[in-house]
Each structure stands twice: as structure tokens, then as C-alpha cells.
Amino acid sequence: MGISELRHMGATGAYTRMPINPLGQELIRAGAITRSDATLAEMVRRHCDTSLDRILQAEGLASEEDLLAAHARRLSSNRMTAEELATAETVATEIDPRKLVKHGVLPLTSVSGAVVLATGRPESLWALRPSLPKSLRRAAAVVAPRHAIQDRIALEHRDRLREMAEARVPEIESCRTWGGGFGRRVRLTVVALAGIAALSLAFPVAVFAVLAFWACFTLVVSAGLKIAAFVAQSAAKTTPPSPVSGPMQPLPKVSILVPLFRETEIAHALIARLSRLTYPKCLLDVILVLEEEDALTRQTLAGIDLPTWVRPVIVPDGKPRTKPRAMNYALDFCEGDIIGIFDAEDAPEADQITIVARRFQQVPRKVACLQGILDYYNPAQNWLARCFTIEYATWFRTLMPGMARLGLAIPLGGTTLYFRRDVLEELGGWDAHNVTEDADLGFRLARHGYRTEMIATVTEEEANCRIWPWIKQRSRWLKGYMTTYLVHMRQPGLLYAQLGPRKFWGFQAHFVSALSQFLLAPFLWSFWLVLFGLPHPLTPVLPHAMLVGLGSLFLMVEVLNICIHMASVAGARHRHLMAWAPTMHFYAPLGAVAAYKALYELILKPFFWDKTVHGLSVAARGQRTSDGGFDLTGIKLEPGHKSL
Hints:
four-stranded mixed beta sheet
């Protein structure tokens, strides 16, 4: 609840004797705010774990200039403008620059030659002082704009911060060491392919039989995992959620990272969607993560009047140019205790962050990640979009929650993810070189004893509805799956010890069966020959009854998949897609094509990020009106919300 709502309710009178923060008293003396506004802000602080600065600024009652002036007067310290800060002489220290960015504190040499500490929020400086070198602990404070301080720190420590973002995850849990073995990988690949080709020429039927039987084995494993997850999730739907007990705690600060790269088409719609969030804006910290060389997106955002709770962070150019590297860099600029991830085209439910914050307060600390449900807002666009929506509904509404209820570790989705910040920092953030950093992080959380929980809140995305962009996106996901499996299986014994038997074998069942099913799909499709009474490559060596049995197995699993797809879209929202579930059999071959592309890139371009193009649907980008305005059709703005 914000100040405007409290004022509308006439709540001030009941709290006229409420003590006012010293900062509030200083602002009242300066005439920047009224006593009534200060009282209402204190009421908001009872429910929101944040400072008076953020409340007043988010509500538009005090400008940053007012707040900095009040801090300077209250602390009897000097002030610096952003321009003065940009030219001030910095003090060389051994302090981790990420810590300086996080607290917004910069050691400087004043005009008199004394060492001072520039800060935008005194409470951040007080929190940092105990960990400063002795020579800085008693340094006087000067007040300056927080974001200008962070920008100056980023400039002074540009190379070091960039390197830290690239190598934040411990080397043993990262794939970054693969970059130097290009020649060796190519040689090994050529030898392996030559060996397979020689064996296929010498023993064609035997090689075909081995691969076909492995495909059938992983088909059974995959089907068993799907059945178990489906049953677990179906049983859970009948169990009512446990009631919440105890007093409500103040809501925490939440930072949302939104990585953007060449997203000029949907930037306006993105800001409108974020504005729908009902979480108190004094607790919301949205960071638009921009690449340094992406001038177009920066120019687009420069033309938008961003709210005070939304700000851009520019990531220095470097290699690899990936989403996880950018998020690693931006993580230290966050102010929240919870870190969330949105993609550029996301349309989260308005109350999503409130649900997440309350859930984190209810669950034990070992639940370090909450994963929301991803859905698509353009399933009616074409057949590919319908199939993609069915696939997402099956994964996020049935299989993923079911796997979590079975006690298995789950690969995370790339968005609508929320983490406890301290745990995320403990694990080193994201692997900057893994192109499915989300799946990798899900298993790193499990390896370190943390759990992920699914929550019933939905974020809508734009379904990739063109074949080649779909293949490019899916090949990146599959390449990341391959990478994640190989990284975590470097030391199988250690992985087993960390995950335990259930999670370890669940990891094997999911990754090995998923990748095998894509790569060996043509061997499974060959059993259609048997079902149609045509000769099969294994006819000379296997009894006809066995071939029919294998063909029947393939057919039964296909029917099982269709049933699970139909059950996953049986709700009111997606019921119209049930008739399209049988066509998922024709959707699968696209995944096989993507898998071969992924395997090629794993060898030759393991860190290449094949970017997904957004804004191809009307709902994703909105439409320009004849007067130059922006018609945000399909974005569902709240009544009374002012469009950009």
C-alpha cells in the first residue's frame, strides 16, 4: 500500500503521534515535504522493508536533490554533484569493486587532500564501514547521487568488473575452460566421426541395431519419468495448500534483471508491462541490462521517461557476449534481497512479485529459488505457436512441478525466476559461458543443498512462431543441455555425493533421455515402417514379432505423450488447444534438426549465443497509432493506467 492510498483512506489522523525519522524531520524543516506526508511514509515503512528515501522518491514526494541535501545537512557533510564526482580523484584500494558497487560507496580525495567516502545513502555506508580497511573506516562522508557513484566505480574498475563477470562461477562448475581446446575438440570429433563411419560401413546393421535399441531404452526411461511426474502433479492438485500462519512480515526489496539486446521493437511495451506490477514501487528495483555496443536499444530507452524504480545498467563489451555474463555484471548494482529475472517480451501477472515475496517468507532458507509458470500470449498466431504453447504447458504445468514433487532437481526456465540474493552470490551467480545458464544453475543449486519450488503465478511470453528462429532458439537450449550435462559429469562421484541417489539418477534420466530422443529420433521413426507393413533395416536380424513389439512401444509412447499434452491444456485457458495435441508428432522433427545444429555448435562454437528475435507478434510489440502514440493492444493495462 502506498502513500496515495493511505491518504485517500484518511489514515493520517490515527497516527499523528507516530515518531518521524530524522531524515523526515530534516525534510519537513526544509519545506520539502509536509508532516502529513512524513507520517504516511512512516506508516508505509511499517509494511515495507526499505528506507524513507525510497518511499518518498517512489511516491514522487521528494526528488533526489531534496534527499541528498537533507542527508548532507543532517550529517554535516559536503555534497558533490554528478559532474564533480566524475572528475574527482579516486583512492586506490584493495576492496573488491563489486562490494563498492553493491553499497554505492567510493573512496575519493577531497580538495583539501583528505580521504572521503562518497555515498548516496548513509545507511549503505554504515553497513560497509566494518569491512573497510582501517585507513578508511573513519573517513568522512560526502553525499552524491548513488547511480553516479556506481557509474564512476564501474568506469574506474571497468576491466576488473568485466573479468569478474566472465569468471564468477568456480572453474570446476563452469564450462569456460573449453575455449582453449578448439583444435583438440575438432581433432577428437573428426576421429570419432571417422570411427563411426568406418563401423557403419563395415557393420551397418549392427550399428543401426545398437543405436535403435539405445533410442528405445531412453524412450522407455523418458516415458517412465513423464508418467511419474504426471501422477505426482495430478495427485498434488487434489491436496489443498497449507494455510499461512503468524503475523505478516514487512515486504522485502526485490530487484528484477531484464537483459536486453537489440530489443528496440518491444521496449515501449516492456515498460508498460512492468508498470502493471502492483508490488510497492518503493521496494521495486528494475534494472534494464544493456550491452555497451547496443546503441539502438540505448537510444530507444533514452526516449522513454523511465519511472524512478527503473534504471539501465550498461555492461562493458566483452567475451562471451551472453545473457549470463550481463546478469553477473548487473547483479552487484541490484538493491534487493530477492533477485528476479524477466525477459524482454515477458508479461508477468500483476501480483506476481507479492506472491513471490510472501512465499520466500514462508519457506525455509533451503528453498533458494522460486520458479513461476511460463505461458504464451500468441498461441493463435499459427500452428507452430500452438504447438509451442502446448509444449510449454506440458513442461511448466505438469512435468516440471511433478519432477519437483518427486524430489528431483529441476532445470530452471530462463525467466520468471526468483532467487535469494545471498544464495545466488554464494554460488557465484551464473556461468557466463553456458548458453542455458538457467538449467545449469538449477543443478548447481541442488548440488549445494538448495531446493527450487514451483509457484502458481504465470508470466506470458511471445511464442517463437517462425520455423528457422524456432530452430535457432531450440538449438541453443539443446547445446546448453549438452554443456550442462558434460560440466556436471566431470566428476560423477562428487556429483553423486552432492545430489544423492534420487537426484543423481533423476539428472541422468532427464538429460540423457532428452538428448538421446532428439539425436536418435530418426531411428525411432523407422518403426513406422514396421507398423505400415514395410521392410525395416533390422528385418534380416530380428524376429518380426520383436520388431512389431518395438513399433508398438513407439506407438504407445506417442499416444501417452498426446494424452499428457491434452491433460496439460485441459484448463479453461488452453482448452481450445486440445484438438491440436495430436499434431505434436509433426512438431518433434524440428527438435531433431535443432539437436544436430546444437551438436555442431557444441564442437565449433560452444559459447555462441544464437539470439532469439522478439517482437514478431502483435501482442509483443504493440502498434504505433497514426498520431505517433502507442496502442498497447493485448497488454492488459490496469484501469486508469496512463500509457507512455
